[in-house]
Design brief:
The chain has 96 residues and is an all-alpha fold. It has three helices and no strands.
Length: 96
């Protein structure tokens, strides 16, 4: 966006925001499920029990979705850096 490449910047930003929203909504859904189980008395209010539930939630199918979303955020970050560097080099050569 700073290099006035609005379409590229918007695509990267939108991709990262979608992946981030997937991560946040999954985390909130998992947290609410754990809170419901605590409120129902199914599990004790113990850090060990809660930590075990959190690790069990992230190992299922939602875990793979979280891994994909994390990869997308990392890829957007890396693509943004490489593209900015490439554009900077191109503009520097044009100004010489």
């Amino acid at each position: 966006m700073i290099l006035k490449q609005y379409l590229r910047g918007s695509i990267l930003m939108l991709s990262a925001l979608i992946a981030l929203s997937v991560i946040v909504t999954t985390a909130i859904r998992q947290a609410l499920a754990i809170v419901d189980r605590i409120n129902n008395g199914e599990i004790p209010v113990d850090t060990g029990s809660i930590a075990e539930l959190v690790s069990n939630f992230s190992s299922g199918s939602e875990g793979s979705i979280l891994n994909i979303a994390t990869f997308v955020i990392g890829a957007c970050w890396l693509i943004g850096i490489i593209d900015s560097y490439r554009l900077g080099i191109t503009r520097e050569k044009q100004s010489i």
